[in-house]
Automatic annotation (TrEMBL), chain A:
Gene Ontology molecular function, alphabetical: ATP binding; phosphorelay sensor kinase activity
Keyword Transcription annotated: no
Originating species: Caulobacter vibrioides OR37
Catalyses which reaction(s): ATP + protein L-histidine = ADP + protein N-phospho-L-histidine
Signal peptide: none
Protein name per Swiss-Prot or TrEMBL: Chemotaxis protein CheA
Keywords: ATP-binding, Chemotaxis, Kinase, Nucleotide-binding, Phosphoprotein, Transferase, Two-component regulatory system
EC numbers for this chain: 2.7.13.3
Automatic annotation (TrEMBL), chain B:
Native organism: Caulobacter vibrioides OR37
Name of the protein described by the UniProt record: Chemotaxis signal transduction protein
GO BP terms in the entry: chemotaxis; signal transduction
Gene3D superfamilies given in the database record: CheA-289, Domain 4, SH3 Domains
InterPro entries cross-referenced by the UniProt entry: CheW (IPR039315), CheW-like_dom_sf (IPR036061), CheW-lke_dom (IPR002545)
All residue ranges annotated as the CheW-like domain in the record: 9-153
GO CC annotations, alphabetized: cytosol
Lineage: superkingdom: Bacteria
One protein family per Pfam: CheW
Length: 653, 165
């Protein structure tokens, strides 16, 4: 990590901090007097200011300073965290982000934001002028690690900040400085002894050091009954200092190490390194299954033992790797609170947004790719789903609309639902629109589910009024494509007048799946195990009588089936006992006729080149134990293909 | 990517496709492989009818003979796969090219090269970057960009720049 650009590291840190600030501010908007959150915002801003100054983001530091000051007053109870103040700081936060990212900012923006902030602070008023008279004198001794300068740290801003707290006497302690010949000028060997008199609590002094505290030594003690000047007079001799300090130190607040909750140690790793590691693990899994085959065909007991051990290790490694890449969906959900905040203002609707299951984890890549579809779905819910307060009132509902974004794990999938309590999908309009667009025949009989699924058809949009937010034609079909691209599925249920639920079923990871290895003709294919419902034998009489229809009865239900042999044109005699693998996406089922089921296979998914993107029936490829390549079947595509002739049959008969 | 660097000779790998000699800039070539097991992709056009396992990666196997309407004789002991790296839809992609026989890397002098003639050629003109004369023979330097963009379809559908000169 040391080789990384410190500025880049700062940017990452700033991004995290600002994200946290945003979340906290939105929490504050709901619970104005939540002390902990107020403190958290203050601390984040403070850290941002300090780190910004250290890394040369002076404009950012200066600007952040104002927000920090405002929040300091909130913290002291001088000013209430009014909605106006929160909005002002939210807007300021966006500006800080721009500053941190080095984006160009328009002149005057900063002034306007600060004016807003000032107005909000003044407006919030309720500033009791009761300054706590108890000015105390503190002796602060600290030293920074020797490599501070190398890492871009600067002690001066720390001293400046201490000085901001109150009258201050600073003495440099030079005991640690070696003789000139041993001196490395880039090492920080100085320590400081500061006596500061301030009305602020001890935590204010600790806050000065908040972002360097991990590596430094810091000692804060209260100087009782000793005028500051006198204390300074006898600075350096350590023995005396100790004598001046009464054992009161133990009485005062807990030392910083205990005061700050120790979070489990975290490590920041660039995502590409994880991807690389993932690739290697994938190749290891392939090599391992090759070894397993070699071992199985040999009678060498030792080889078999080693092979088994490696199999065990590889599968553990794979599991760990998957966990490493998992991040809680809360990260993603958090972003939408801001979206809702803005949507509420734009649409004039009152929206209550709740999230559930934020700790559910998903692969990082998937989380990133889910962001856009979710934005779209939430916008839809807010814009089309929820009614205006007047409409809601008229239909006897509370004026505030609710949107719930929830996640939960179910097996190897995560189910994300977006629930709104709005007007629900207008079936008549969906039908009219679909007929207009030629998606269905006028008067065609459809089940309710089929009707709802039309929403996901390309080029479909029911919004009569195209608003700024949604209904720009790129609609749910794009969402559906993205979700299917993640090997997931999307479904919608809706009750008129009561709202809609959109559910996304997403696999936990993209890189490795459990698959069912089958043979069709001479080629082998992988079917994602998660979509396999069951495997049955294709009855011989069914097989022979297949001319007119390709339907098999499974537990009193007709299931259409596809002969992969025909579809793939293998041009060979089929095996006498063919099998049907029944697969499903959502409620649609289809049987795939294969020659042989070879067993389950842990599959590392390799993408196909753009050359084969148009083929459609395959979602990727994988390398088998013997070095051969097997194509992974795209179930969504096959099911659609299987349903088509079936739908025609039903329409005809 | 066209090395229009004045008159520098082009270092190129030459190979045969059904009696015709083709050449690719050596810088594109990653590796020359003996034939390996192929996996047919059902439904894919013959131009990219299969994929192969190239060192743990699944890469498409392109048959340039389709683009140049050449017959494809059954593989011989000389058949090879030339693995190149070439951008595809903006992403650098490893692609295998079938070759009936691979020759040496030679320097092709820009002085002996010329653009494909507009007439008298049965091939799509935009599939050819230029032709080079050598010992009374002609070497074809294909325009992979165009060929890949057209997915090897010989019927002119929508050439990128139709009047290539």
């Amino acid at each position: 990590m040391s080789g990384q650009d410190p500025v880049a590291i700062f940017r990452i840190e700033a991004r995290d901090l600002l994200e946290q600030v945003e979340l906290d501010l939105l929490t504050l908007a709901e619970r104005q007097d939540d002390r902990e959150t107020i403190d958290a915002v203050f601390r984040s801003l403070h850290t941002l200011k300090g780190s910004g100054a250290m890394f040369g983001f002076d404009a950012l530091a200066a600007f952040t300073h104002h927000c920090e000051t405002a929040f300091d007053r909130v913290r002291k109870g001088e000013v209430a965290a009014s909605p106006a103040l929160i909005s002002a700081v939210l807007a300021a936060r966006d500006h800080m982000r721009a500053l941190a990212e080095g984006e160009p900012t328009e002149p005057g923006v900063e002034e306007a934001l600060l004016d807003d902030l000032r107005r909000a602070v003044d407006g919030a008023g309720a500033a009791p002028v009761s300054t706590p008279p108890s000015a105390k004198t503190w002796r602060v001794r600290f030293s920074l690690p020797p490599e501070t300068f190398v890492n871009g740290g600067r002690p001066l801003p720390l001293l400046d900040e201490l000085r901001d707290l109150g009258p201050c006497e600073v003495t440099a302690v030079t005991d640690g400085v070696p003789a000139v010949e041993d001196l490395n000028p880039t090492d920080c060997r100085l320590a400081w002894d500061v006596v500061v008199t301030t009305e602020q609590p001890r935590s204010a002094i600790e806050d000065v050091f908040i972002f360097v505290i991990d590596d430094m030594t810091l000692d804060i003690t209260e100087v009782v009954d000793e005028p500051a000047a006198q204390a300074v007079a006898e600075v350096v001799p350590d023995a005396k200092v100790a004598a001046i300090e009464p054992p009161k130190a133990a009485n005062s607040d807990a030392p910083p190490a205990e005061g700050r909750p120790r979070v489990a140690e975290m490590l920041r790793v660039p995502a590409e390194r994880l991807d690389e590691l993932m690739d290697r693990v994938g190749e290891l899994v392939i090599a391992q299954s090759r070894l397993k085959q070699v071992a199985a065909s040999s009678s060498d007991q030792n080889l078999m033992t080693v092979s088994e051990q490696i199999e065990q290790l590889a599968s553990e490694l794979r599991e760990i790797m998957m966990v490493v890449r998992m991040v809680p969906v809360g990260q993603l959900f958090g972003r939408f609170r801001r979206l809702i905040h803005d949507l509420a203002i734009e649409t004039g609707k009152t929206i209550n947004f709740a999230t559930d299951g934020e700790t559910t984890e998903l692969d990082k890549t998937i989380i990133e790719r889910l962001a856009d579809p979710l934005v779209h779905l939430i916008r839809n819910a807010a814009d089309h789903g929820l009614e205006t307060p007047e409409q809601r009132k008229a239909s006897g509902k509370p004026e505030t609309g609710h949107i719930l974004l929830a996640a939960r794990q179910s097996g190897a999938e995560v189910v994300i639902t977006i629930t709104d309590d709005g007007r629900g999908v207008d079936r008549a309009r969906v039908r009219a629109k679909a007929e207009e667009n030629g998606l269905i025949q006028p008067g065609q009989v459809l089940t309710d589910n089929e009707l709802l699924q039309l929403i996901f058809a390309p080029g479909f949009s029911t919004a009569t009024a195209v608003t700024n937010l949604s209904g720009r034609g790129v609609g749910m079909d794009v969402v559906k494509k993205t979700i299917e691209g993640l090997r997931g599925a999307i479904e919608i249920t809706s009750t008129p007048g009561q709202g809609s639920v959109v559910s996304l079923r997403i696999p936990l990871t993209l890189a490795i799946i459990d698959g069912l290895l089958v043979r069709v003709g001479a080629s082998r294919y992988v079917i994602p195990l998660s979509s396999v419902e069951e495997c049955v034998e294709l009855p011989v009489e069914q097989d022979l009588r297949s001319a007119g229809r390709s339907l098999v009865t499974l537990r009193d239900q007709l299931v259409p089936f596809i002969r992969l042999r025909q579809m793939f044109n293998t041009g060979q005699e089929p095996d006498p006992h063919q099998k049907i693998v029944v697969v499903s996406t959502g409620q649609e089922r289809v049987g795939l006729v294969v020659d042989q089921i070879l067993g389950d296979h842990q599959t590392v998914i390799k993408p196909l080149s753009p050359f084969h993107a148009a083929v459609g029936a395959f979602s990727g490829a994988t390398i088998l134990g013997d070095g051969g390549v097997a194509l992974i079947l795209d179930i969504g595509c096959l099911v659609a293909a299987g349903q088509r002739p079936d739908a025609q049959l039903r329409a005809a008969g | 990517m066209i090395a229009d660097n004045a008159n520098d000779p082009i270092e190129a790998l030459t190979f045969d496709l059904h009696g015709e000699t083709f050449a690719l800039e050596a810088g594109l070539v990653r590796e020359v492989l003996d034939l390996l097991p192929e996996t047919a992709v059902p439904g894919a056009p013959p131009f990219v009818g299969a994929v192969i396992n190239f060192r743990g990666r699944v890469i498409p196997l392109v048959d340039l003979r389709v683009a140049f309407e050449l017959d494809a004789p059954p593989p011989t002991i000389d058949s090879r796969i030339v693995v190149i790296e070439h951008p595809l839809d903006g992403e650098p992609t490893l692609i295998g090219l079938r070759a009936d026989k691979v020759h040496e890397v030679t320097a092709i002098d820009r002085a002996v090269t010329e653009d494909a003639p507009r007439v008298g050629l049965k091939w799509r003109a935009d599939f050819i970057r230029f032709l080079a004369r050598r010992n009374g023979d002609v070497i074809v330097i294909p325009d992979l960009e165009q060929i890949f963009a057209a997915r090897g379809q010989t019927a002119v559908v929508t050439p990128l720049h139709p009047s290539q000169s």
